[in-house]
Amino acid sequence: xxxxxxxxxxxxxxxxxxxxxxxxxxxxxxxxxxxxxxxxxxxxxxxxxxxxxxxxxxxxxxxxxxxxxxxxxxxxxxxxxxxxxxxxxxxxxxxxxxxxxxxxxxxxxxxxxxxxxxxxxxxxxxxxxxxxxxxxxxxxxxxxxxxxxxxxxxxxxxxxxxxxxxxxxxxxxxxxxxxxxxxxxxxxxxxxxxxxxxxxxxxxxxxxxxxxxxxxxxxxxxxxxxxxxxxxxxxxxxxxxxxxxxxxxxxxxxxxxxxxxxxxxxxxxxxxxxxxxxxxxxxxxxxxxxxxxxxxxxxxxxxxxxxxxxxxxxxxxxxxxxxxxxxxxxxxxxxxxxxxxxxxxxxxxxxxxxxxxxxxxxxxxxxxxxxxxxxxxxxxxxxxxxxxxxxxxxxxxxxxxxxxxxxxxxxxxxxxxxxxxxxxxxxxxxxxxxxxxxxxxxxxxxxxxxxxxxxxxxxxxxxxxxxxxxxxxxxxxxxxxxxxxxxxxxxxxxxxxxxxxxxxxxxxxxxxxxxxxxxxxxxxxxxxxxxxxxxxxxxxxxxxxxxxxxxxxxxxxxxxxxxxxxxxxxxxxxxxxxxxxxx
Length: 583
Fold this sequence. Notes:
The chain has helices spanning 2-5, 9-41, 48-101, 104-109, 112-120, 122-155, 157-204, 206-211, 215-268, 273-314, 331-340, 384-391, 414-419, 435-440, 448-457, 461-464, 484-497, 514-528, 563-567, 573-582, and strands at residues 346-354, 359-368, 373-378, 399-404, 407-408, 421-424, 433-434, 474-475, 502-506, 532-536, 548-553, 556-561. The chain has a domain at 2-314: ABC transporter type 1, transmembrane domain (ABC transporter transmembrane region fold). The two termini are 63 Å apart. It is 65% helix and 11% strand. Strand 9 (502-506), helix 18 (514-528) and strand 10 (532-536) form a beta-alpha-beta unit. Helix 7 runs parallel beside helix 10, helix 15 packs across helix 17 (484-497) and helix 17 (484-497) packs parallel to helix 18. By secondary structure, the protein is an alpha/beta fold.
C-alpha cells in the first residue's frame, strides 16, 4: 500500500507520533496507582494531611495524563482517516484508470459487477480497517507494552513470566486460526463478487427482464447467490468470533492465576499492595493489547484476501499495450503524409486474428481510401464488426498489420487513434444526464455552435424540440425513456461532434422503424460527402448509394463492387443476401 500512502506521509508521521505519545500515557497511568497506594495512602512516614496532598498531586497527574491521551488520540485519529481515505482514493483512482486502459479481451474475462466490488466493496473496507489498526493502534500499543513489561519485570519476575506464558498460548491459538480465516474471507469475497456481478448484469438488462416477464426467475436466482453470500458471511463472522474467544478465555485463566500468585506474593514475598495494583492494571492493558494484535492478525487475513484480488487486476497486462510516448506517431501528421502520397486511409495487410473461442481472419488483406464510403455486409460472425474493432485497436491482431494513414495502429497513442474515428454502434449507451451533456461527452471543449451543428446533421432537433425541456431534458441510465431511433441520432451527433477522420456506422439502422431509418439514412448520406465512411449493414436497402460494397464470408472478402453491379450478379453472395432480405 506504500505507493498509495506516500503523498500523505506527513500526516502518517503525525499519526504515529500521536499514537506513541498516547502509548506513553497509557503505560504510565497504571504506574501512578502504585505510588498513590505505596508512597501516599500506605506511607507511614507521612502525616495524614501530607498523604492527602501527595495523593491529590498524583491524582491531578493521572487526570492530566488521561486528558492528554484523549486529545492527542483525537488529533491523530483525524489525521489517520485523512491518510487512509487519501490512500484509498489513490488506489481506487489507479484501479479505475488501469481498468479503463485495458483492451476488450479483459472485459470478456472480468464482469462489471466483480470490478465494482473490488473498487467499492468489502475488499476496500477490509484494507481500511486493517490499516487503521496498523497506523494508529500498533504504535501506542508497542510503547505501552515495552514500558509496562519493563515495570512488571522490575516489580515481580514470577508474575511477569506467568503473564508472558499466557500471551504465548494466546498467540499459538491465533496462529492456528489465521489460515482458516484467510480461506473463509477469500470465499466470502468471491461470493460477494458473484452477487455484485449478478445484480449489475440484471439491472443493466432490466428491459429484457420486463420484456420476457422473468422477474420471478431473476429474483429466485438472486436469492440463490445472496444465500451463498449470506452463508459465507455467517461462516466467516462466526468463525472469527469463535477464534477470538479462545485467546480471551486464556486471558481469563491467566488473570486468575496471576491473582492467586499475587496474593501469595503479598503474604509471603513482601510484595506491596500498590505494586500488586499496578501489576494487575498493567497486566489488563498488556493482555488487551495482545487480544487486539491477535484480532489484527485475523483482520490482516481478510485485508490480504481483498488486496490480492485488486493487485491481480492491477497486474493484468493490457492486450493492447501503448508504445512509449516519445516513440508514438502523430495521427495528424501521418494523415497529411498519407493523403499526399495517395496511400489508403485504412489498410489490412495479411491479417490473422482469432478470439479465444473462434477464428475470424486468416491472411486477410483489404484497403479503404480517403473520402470513400464502403459498406461491409455478410452473415453473423463473418468479420464485419471485427474489422472496425481492429481498425480502432480495441483488439490487437495475432499476425499481420493494420495500417491507418499508412502506419501501424500500434505506433499511435490509443487515445489519438480512437478519437480519429467516430462510431455509431447498433446499441447506443446513454449516460444519466441531459441530452446536451450526452452529446457533449464526445468533445467536452466543443462550442455551443458546434454542438448545435452536430444536432442538426443528426436530426436530433426533430425530437428534442418536442420535449418540455428541449436538449436539457434529463434521460435515465441507458436512455430507457428514449426510442431506438432517438438514441441513434444522439450517437450520430456524438460522432459528428468529435470531428473524426473516419465514421463507422455499425448496423446503426438494423432495429429502427422506417421514419427513424430515413432520418438516420439522410444523416449518413450527408456525412458520406465529407468523410471516409464505413457502414456495417444489416438492412441492405441503406447502402444503395455507397461507393463500394465488401461482402464478407467466414473472414474473407468474397465479393466487392457497387450495389447495382453486385445485385445483378447471378449466383453471387450479395445477390443471395438480397433474396433472403426480400423474402
